[in-house]
Every structure is written in C-alpha cells, then in structure tokens.
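Retro notes, structure queue

What went well: the backlog is down to a handful. What didn't: a couple of records were mislabeled last round, so from now on we paste the full input next to the output in the thread. Example, using Damage-control phosphatase ARMT1-like metal-binding domain-containing protein from Streptomyces monashensis:
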Amino acid sequence: MPDTPFAPVILGNETGSFPHSVLAERHPAIIQQVRDAFPYGPGQRRELDELLASCTEGTIEPLPADAPDRDLWQGWGLPAYTGRSWYDVPWLWSESWFYRRLLDAVGYVGPGAWQGIDPFRPFKRAELDAPETDAELAALDDLAGLPEEERARALLHGSLWGNRADLGFRLSAESAEKRDPAPALVADDGDALFALLPRTGAGTLVLVADNAGRELVPDLLLIAHLLDQGRAARAVLHVKPHPYYVSDATTADVVDALRRLRAAPGAAAGYARVLWAALADGRLTVRAHPFSCAPLPYADMPDDLRAEFAAATLTLFKGDLNYRRLVGDRLWPPTTPFTAVTGYAPGPVAALRTLKSDVVTGLSPATAAALVAAEEQRWRTSGTHALIQVSTSSSSSDLESQ
Ligand SMILES: O=P(O)(O)OC[C@H]1O[C@](O)(CO)[C@@H](O)[C@@H]1O
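Corresponding output:
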C-alpha cells in the first residue's frame, strides 16, 4: 500500500494517547498478571524484570543468534528498529515485539521445562469455564426453531459481539440503533457477506480468528452453521502459532473450546458434532501460519498466504488487531472507503470487529458525525461499537480520489 501522507502510521510516543497508554501501562500490568499467575523461578522473574525495564524505558534489542524465529524477525523489521525506543517505532510493531519478548522471558520459546507453557492459559481457561459461557451456550437452544437466515444472522452477530467477549446472539442491531444517538453497529455489510455465502456454496471460507474463549466459541458456532447449511463446502480456521496479545487463540485453545462445546447440554453439543466431523474428514482445517503473529499489516503478507486467501470465497478477519492489520495501522479519516484500504487483498474480505483502537475506515459521514457528537473520540476505543465490512474487489482508485 502506498505511504499516504494523510494517514500516518500510528506510533506510541504521544503521551495521553491510547497507544501510549498500552505501552506505558497495559504492558507492565500484563507482566505483573503473568508473574502472579505462575510459580516462575528466579531466572524467569529476573527476565520479566528486565523486560519491564526494557519496554518502559529501554530500547529494542536484537534476538539471540539461536532464536528459532530470528530469520522471521530479521525480515519483519528488527534490524531497522534495533536500538530505538519502543515508543518511536510503529505501535503495531512494538506491541508484537512485547509479546515475543514475554514468551522468551517465561521460557516458552525454550529449550527447557517451560517450553510451550502458555503464560496466558489461566486467563483463557477462566473465561471458557465462566458461568456466563453456560448461559450464552444455552441461548443457542432458542435459535433452533428460527428460519435459517435468522439463525445465520444471529450467529454472525454472536461472533461479532464475541469480540467484546459478549456473545449476545443479537438477532439484529436495529434495536440498539434506535436506543442510542450513535449507532452500536457503525457499518453493516451483513447482507453483502451472506450474498458471498449462498446455501448452494461450494467454496471455502477462511476465518482469521482473534481471541480464544468467549470469542472463539461463537466463531466456531458460525463455522459449524455455514458448513452444516451448505453456505461453505470447506472452512479454514487461522489461529496464532504461539500465545499473543494475551487472549489470542492458538490450536490448543481451539481444542479447549471444542471440548467445552461438546460437553455442553442442548443444541451446543450438536454444533460440536458438526465441527468434530468436519475436522475429521478435512472439511474444516486449522492453520497456524507464522505471519499470523507478524508485526506487520496484511498488505505485506507472504506469497503462500496470499495464494490461500486468493483461493477462498471469503476471508473473514475477526477482531480489532486483525482489523488494524487488514486496513493498515494508520489514522485514516473515518470515511476512507474500506474497499480502498483493502484493495491489495487477493480476494473478497470481510471484517467483524468491535472498535478498540483508533483505526477505523468505511464510515458514512453521517455516522462519523453522530459518533463524534455523542462521544467525542471515545467511540473509537470503548469496545461498545462494532462493524461488519465487506470488500469484494480491488479498488485502489478509491484511495487515490480521497
Ligand atoms: O482482541 P482484539 O479485538 O484484537 O483487540 C486487541 C486490542 O487490544 C489492544 O492490544 C490494546 O487495547 C489493541 O491494541 C488491540 O487492537
């Protein structure tokens, strides 16, 4: 994507900004949470202290020569950023680097006895085991008698609002729109999304997952429905190859979520059976591509991933972080067309996301104005607004006309 002067890349160096607060406050808090959750030894605690000093006051350091992913990070910009403050490089890059360094500190990268022990697992498990999850799964029973279109839309909204860890299974956002001066759903291309997935579907849905637990469960339910109803012949679920951004889903989290679904009473277990069978016969596959944890926008994706997305009927990106990577982590004017910023994509793409960072595109002028009038800029990061956006074509000319 061209470096557009009207949409600067977001950095974390502006005191008082949301990105600055993530680097200066959220990351130290995450280090503390992880320290408290595990019986780590002196070496790990020392490494966590060093990470705390580095991420708040230090500079980016090189990876050890024997790090298994050193070549990847060399290609992802590490040489250019080494020696610079964490605050002065792209915020997306700094955040990803934080999680990579955290995994080193706790021994996840190994070798050693702590290799592969997910430092965020206790938090993910707690969410999956929460009583709220039972209530949300029980709500599936109420969907059983509805026409297929309504079930599909309810499950789409469950997956969307699951990004806020709130599986409301909203049948529509219309009531929310009537209630609030600023709409809860700030863009709704739901019809366009389902038009790409008709019930005669012979194609492949790629779902690029975001969080585990109460977001991954409704993502899986949506996939189960689309496969079961013939809206997709195959599905590919992209998860993270290693723990990331605290709650991001890995393959282990998919297994936990499926087992949770299978053990639930009522309709939920039926969805689990569909998914289990689809995994067994290959209609559903799980992928953990290294680029899923890259500190870069999807415009920079490698050729193999591009080919995979190109072959899909639709690639559906879940969540805020994937949205930032899909459109580029820039301060776009909110009315910048979504089709323009995703014009590099090799096939149809959709985003399902609650708004949790400053990045947004594709709003109508009226919606953008209503949001600002009601909430100043708080709507961008509060997680109380959401969007469904779809682009079916490359359209870089939209961007040039901005
Ligand atoms: O889980 P999600 O929806 O990707 O949100 C993660 C978001 O959390 C943050 O890391 C910090 O709030 C954002 O930078 C990021 O976009």
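Agreed that this is the format going forward. Reviewer comment attached to the example: The mean pLDDT is 92.
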